[in-house]
Amino acid sequence: MLIRYKKAFEKIAMGLLSFMPSEKDLKKLQQTMKQYETDENWQLFLWKEEDIVGLIGVQKEEGAMEIHHISVNPSHRHEGIGKAMVKHLKDMYSELDVKPNEETASFFERCEGEMNE
Questions:
Q1: Locate the N-acetyltransferase domain: which residues (predicted)?
Q2: Taking residues 68-75, what's their average pLDDT?
């Protein structure tokens, strides 16, 4: 289930974000978290099963939503969680064009291909 990020989940969210290649540096990671916490156009969602195992971060734009971050706990990868997060996001914001940024494009395109099969 996709849930909205809350400050109480900060450590979990930072841990998941740190799996993104661009977020390895602690200063960069802290800047990214601050962006999600202070800019209303940047939204972070967490994927919760029994525990929180995934995260997807987006930036709302005029008529679109761009995926900037997508990460799944390594022990839960290859279970379809990333694809499920993208699908739920598209369902939640069906009026918007959900699209990837450069960093998330290859994963997004794989998800799109599998969803259309």
A1: 3-117
A2: 95
